[in-house]
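Input sequence (105 aa), recorded before submission:
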Amino acid sequence: MLAFTGFGLGWVNSGADYSRYLPRSASGAGVVGWTTFGATAAPVVLLVWGTLLAGSDKKLSDAIGQDPIGALTTLLPTWYLVPFAIVAIGGLIGGAVCWTSIRPG
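Predicted structure, token format:
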């Protein structure tokens, strides 16, 4: 949850970037609404899918609670963990870079 929160808050300060290239006649509520929808659609789908997956099996739920990455190794082929790690680490680095590049000082 900390990673999700930190990544989401990292985008808060760059709100002007969402509307920079839109015409002045664009609705403010539309910009906020569509940006929020676009930013939350994929995480909500993944959160629901993960919740259903964890709730589908008591043994899997306990394994995820103790070691989420280790639990994935029992479900997925070993080669899949390499792209998963690249995407996970890249996302956290991207959020951190964005946060540090827009923070004053």
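Checked by second reader. The chain has a mean pLDDT of 77.
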